[in-house]
Amino acid sequence: MVTKYIKAFSNLKKTNKKGFAVLFDPDELEINKIENLADLCNESSVDYIFIGGSIMLSNHLDECIQKFKQHSSIPIILFPGSPSQISKYADALFYLSLISGRNPELLIGAHVVSAPFVKNSGLEIIPTGYMIIDGGSPTTVSYMSHSSPIPHDKKDIAVCTAMAGEMQGKKVIYMDAGSGAKNPISNEMIEAVSKNIDIPLIAGGGIKSASEAIVKCKAGADIIVVGNAIENETSLIKELSVAIHQF
After folding, report:
1. C-alpha distance from residue 127 to each of 133, 168, 171, 232 (Å)
2. Which 3 state secondary structure label does DSSP give 97?
3. How far apart are the first and last CA of the chain?
4. What confidence tens digit (pLDDT) does each residue in 12-47 have?
5. Burial class (CB within 10 angstroms; exposed 0-12, middle 13-18, buried 19+) of 116
6. 4-244: what CATH class?
7. Residue 5, H or E segment
């Protein structure tokens, strides 16, 4: 198994550097705007482009990725909401296990269904412990996963969940307050989780400004993910990138 991106994520944690990822939902992407978005990501030194969503109504995932590839060399990592959200044109795949929930389909069931296709996809597979954290409002991912998020003030639960994920062999922990979250994950929770695991920590959801991104980095997040905040204000991409890369 190729581990290029797992090694890159791990190196961020080892060197206390920070990465910046922009998350795009294929349902929100217009093909004729991807060139401009790719150019903006290039100019802003975005490290990774994550593509995926809880629901996929469109059928142009392959086309979106290929369009990005025409205009950018930034790695594209799939953030799938279901086994159908897989494209051989991406560079890697977060193989997400929803370790914060108790839905067996999202712990292992969907993985069994998708395993043959994933194995033959040629993608780098990144075993990921995915944790939904309460961001102050109901999110699509909580609804679709039939799982309650970890309460925002229960950092001990988050720590134990992340530790369990690491001991089960996950290579990355991804903490997410969800698309459109009112509040980002607390700094206290990020700090507690980061201190108790040796694998990289990705944090996203509810981050709307450079100042918020900075405090998440200081708390211990290794990669900051921003999605909704930049959909209507793409200029934030450069501002966030500058802030995150100061570390």
Report:
1. 19, 10, 6, 32
2. strand
3. 30
4. 999 999 999 999 999 889 999 999 999 999 999 999
5. exposed
6. alpha beta
7. helix 4-15
DSSP 33: G
Tokens at 198, concatenated: 């040796």
Cα–Cα distance for residue pair 64/165, rounded to 1 Å: 32
- Of 103, 82, 104, the residue nearest 95 (C-alpha): 82
Residue 144 belongs to what H/E stretch?
helix 140-145
**Which residues neighbour 203 within 8 Å (Cβ) at sequence distance 6 or greater?**
174, 175, 176, 184, 185, 190, 216, 221, 223, 224, 225
**Residue type at position 135:** G
- Report pTM: 0.95
Residue 200's Cβ-count burial label (10 Å; 0-12, 13-18, 19+) is: buried
Residue type, 236: L
Structure tokens at 236: 């934030």
3-class DSSP state for residue 207? coil
- What span, in angstroms and rounded, lies between the C-alpha atoms of 213 and 241? 9
**What are the sequence ranges of the domains in the chain?**
4-244
